[in-house]
Amino acid sequence: MANLVEATSQQQFEDILSKAGKRLTVVHFYAPWAPQCGQMNEVMTVLAKEHAHTTFVKLEAETLPEVSEKYEISSVPTVVFFKAGEKVDRLDGAHAAELTKMVQRLAVAGSPNESSGGEDLNQRLKKLINAAPCMLFMKGAPQEPRCGFSRQIVALLKEHSIQFSSFDILSDEEVRQGLKTYSNWPTYPQLYVNGELVGGLDIVKELAESGELENACPKAVNLDHRLKTIINQSPVMLFMKGNKEAAKCGFSRQILEILNASGVDYDTFDILQDEEVRQGLKTYSNWPTYPQLYVKGELIGGLDIVKELKESGELAAVLKGES
Length: 323
What we know:
Layout: E1 4-7, H1 10-20, E2 25-30, H2 35-50, E3 55-60, H3 65-70, E4 78-83, E5 86-92, H4 96-109, H5 118-129, E6 134-138, E7 140-141, E8 144-145, H6 148-159, E9 165-168, H7 173-183, E10 190-193, E11 196-199, H8 201-210, H9 213-216, H10 218-231, E12 236-240, H11 250-262, E13 267-270, H12 275-285, E14 292-295, E15 298-301, H13 303-312, H14 315-319
Parallel strand pairs: 1-3, 2-3, 6-9, 12-13
Antiparallel strand pairs: 2-4, 4-5, 6-10, 7-8, 10-11, 12-14, 14-15
Helix pairs in contact: 2-4, 6-8, 11-13
């Protein structure tokens, strides 16, 4: 695809950054010998399809040492984000879910469709609010809240086993200011359930104290239980596009061929038939792509991992739950 390229020289890399202009460019510094880089490349391919206005670049770190040294690449995989030729962020390590979140956040801010018009902003806010059944707009991230109120509300949600997604308002001033008007709520954090504003920290505290918090977020809690049930309905469970009889993407087709050749019994779940499972499992498993293979309730990984296990001779033992 046109927006996913491999940079093989320093000049080509600089030309790519120049042509991208203010649009987001995502550069994966990788090594072909590192298996975790293969998974990140798979994620890059999926993201390139979803973000047509973002440029995704694969760059072999050891082949272009001058570029790697310039951006202080000391290990792989490392992903560096650029806008207008300047580095704006980076991600060290094989964190596929975090890569997806960062691309979503940075790509929206640099989209050519971005407009200062209120109508476009409202559409964007509506999309963010509905990005998950339970959505928290906060300062910082759940792993690292950047204000006391955000820290308290995250602790409450975790204490009551509420599954939620979040958006860091400090990363986007347009969202930070616009959501106050959109929701008619002037402070943060703000919690939304099924697209509706629940309120801020004081409201969530009251709901927790009255025992109503779980009822206010039923879908988030029930989805977690539902996913766990589906994952454990068979010792070997494959979440894929299509089913055993008819795979609906190349990755799913390849993993079916490997499993069929193994002789192990397995069941499948077609994520194309259930959008709630399709989106929810990405968060539950912290794995943003499909197919996903589980053995005895534990995530094994995607196609690349299964291929590696087959090549190393470990697949049969893994599928039997012996390792």
